[in-house]
Design a protein that fits this description.
The structure holds 2 protein chains of 2 kinds.
Chain A: H1 2-18, H2 25-40, H3 44-65, H4 75-114, H5 117-124, H6 128-166, H7 171-179, H8 184-210, H9 215-246
Helix pairs in contact in A: 1-6, 2-6, 3-4, 3-6, 4-6, 4-7, 4-8, 4-9, 6-8, 8-9
Chain B: E1 2-11, E2 14-24, E3 28-33, H1 40-47, E4 55-60, E5 63-64, H2 70-77, E6 80-83, H3 95-106, H4 111-124, H5 140-151, E7 158-162, H6 170-186, E8 190-195, H7 198-204, E9 207-212, E10 215-220, H8 231-237, H9 241-250
Parallel strand pairs in B: 3-8, 3-9, 6-7, 7-8
Antiparallel strand pairs in B: 1-2, 1-4, 4-5, 9-10
The chains are: A mainly alpha, B alpha/beta.
């Protein structure tokens, strides 16, 4: 318990140092665009593949579960859309990113810590936490919600593809369901969730990397801790945001 | 000039530095020698502000460094160059980007001026055609040279080297030592070097301090280190069988 509180304090202190004015905006911009590519654009392939398959699976499962002939078939599309937008495209994608991006960030920063590269920056008088972490947090928090939108579209596309292949319902029924009782607020809710989750992933992973110690084994340990802690924090934040925004 | 007065550093209960005091002059290579784990690296990192000392004073000329805030320390740090034990070159950057890194942060020089300075620094450490290589494409000796080039990029007044010869063969070690010594004299820098390499001591040790279990127990130069009657120093200097024989022959 004492150790957890100490870590929380250390995390808070690190964030205070991270959220200061960058030494040079020109350098920050360069890092920001590099991190957009590394953290957001490079995640597109894995998110795309998973979204298409999950969209298809949700449609099959929903169609299989609607046995009552009185329930219109278009509800398959409606329920697939709601499942994707409310939970899968933000929470599930964030959990996937916690594994992919989180381990990448913590091992990268952790390796820099143990090979004294962070010391070298500090020694030069550079705010290393601000230089290394702020662009990552900014890039992921701003652009990952677009990744959520992409995941949503591809999930729906995956559903349409499986309908074309199997014919479990017609495409027009599916399309009607997708448009039925559409609430734009759910998209906003999901994008906000994704933004918060991205902050959690990048800040927690950076924290574990920044304070890594104990050689390469320590870097491995910090990566594992980063993924586990980010995932738990995402689930907790999901509960809180959902209670606040949908209740 | 760098002066340290009664410096103490604890890690938990363990005292790593015990009342360390010295004063090192510009234009000289001052070596701190001692066995592994004696506190050399902690001392060096305390002097440059990477560790907070528990008590004592650190002076850079007329400024007491250890009482300054992070932002106030920046001005002094611009005048410090440091070569780390493992070179600490940035993996994500090429040699050129590594050397110009401090310039990007602390100067308003044009691109052309920066590239000229990078090329000058690389030439000074005898490196050619390596600008676009990444650190993992360089040998250990070349990495040290790039580390030195980066350390002198902003023309520092103070240079710190933490075990500059670790992992290098004897010939390359001597070249690196000579390079550090030449640069020190050329730019009249105050240079402090941590080492346990006796070849370095005999090569460039204008001033030598011996640290044992966190205490600076002997100070002198390369001329009188061999004739000292400090028992711990003799155990360190004449640790090998060959060195012991030489000592016996010297009487």
């Amino acid at each position: 318990m004492k150790k957890s509180l100490e870590q929380l304090g250390q995390y808070y202190y690190l964030m205070k140092v991270v959220f200061t004015k960058p030494d040079k905006w020109k350098i920050f911009r360069k890092q920001f665009f590099t991190d957009i590519e590394k953290l957001v654009l490079n995640s597109i392939p894995i998110i795309a593949v998973i979204s298409i398959f999950i969209g298809a699976v949700i449609v099959i499962q929903t169609a299989y579960n609607i046995e009552n002939p009185l329930i219109p078939k278009m509800y398959v599309g409606y329920m697939a859309r709601e499942s994707l937008v409310l939970e899968f495209c933000s929470t599930m994608v964030a959990l996937i990113l916690a594994g992919k991006v989180g381990s990448n960030i913590s091992s990268e920063i952790g390796s820099m810590r143990i090979s004294e590269q962070i010391d070298a920056m500090e020694m030069m008088g550079i705010n290393s936490a601000n230089y290394l972490i702020l662009p990552k947090i900014a890039a992921a928090t701003i652009f990952n919600p677009l990744l959520m939108l992409m995941s949503f579209m591809l999930g729906l596309l995956g559903g349409a593809m499986i309908i074309s292949f199997t014919g479990i319902i017609t495409l027009s029924q599916y399309s009607e369901g997708l448009q039925y009782a559409f609430r734009f607020y759910y998209i906003v809710y999901s994008m906000i969730k994704m933004s918060v989750f991205s902050f959690i992933i990048t800040s927690i992973s950076s924290y574990y990397g920044y304070y890594a110690s104990g050689g390469s084994l320590g870097v491995g340990r910090s990566s594992t801790k980063a993924i586990v802690t980010s995932s738990v924090a995402i689930l907790l934040a999901n509960l809180i945001i959902t209670q606040l925004m949908l209740n | 000039m760098i002066q340290v007065k009664l410096l103490n550093k604890f890690f938990g209960e363990k005292q790593v530095l015990n009342d360390i005091s010295f004063k090192y002059k510009p234009g000289e290579c001052s070596l701190i020698i001692g066995a592994s784990g004696s506190g050399k690296t902690v001392l060096l990192k305390s002097i440059v502000g990477l560790h907070e000392p528990d008590s004592g004073e650190i002076w850079y000329d007329k400024i007491q460094f250890n009482t300054l805030s992070f932002n106030e320390k920046k001005d002094i740090r611009k005048e410090i160059g440091m070569l780390f034990q493992g070179s600490a070159l940035f993996d994500f950057a090429t040699v050129e980007e590594n050397v110009r890194f401090p310039m990007d942060f602390f100067t308003e020089w044009s691109e052309e001026e920066k590239i000229d300075r990078v090329n000058f620094c690389l030439k000074r450490v005898n490196l050619k055609n390596v600008n676009s290589l990444f650190p993992n494409e360089l040998s250990g000796g070349m990495q040290k040279r790039v580390g030195i080039a980066r350390a002198i990029a902003l023309n520092p007044k103070y240079l710190f080297c933490d075990e500059p010869n670790s992992g290098l063969d004897p010939q390359t070690s001597i070249l690196i030592d000579q390079l550090i010594s030449e640069i020190t004299k050329e730019y009249n820098m105050t240079t402090i070097i941590n080492t346990h390499d006796m070849n370095s001591v005999m090569e460039i040790g204008d001033s030598v301090g011996f640290i044992h279990l966190g205490k600076l127990i002997w100070q002198g130069d390369k001329e009188n280190i061999l004739t000292s009657d400090c028992e711990e120093l003799n155990d360190f200097v004449f640790a090998s069988r060959m060195a012991k024989k030489v000592k016996e022959m010297m009487g």
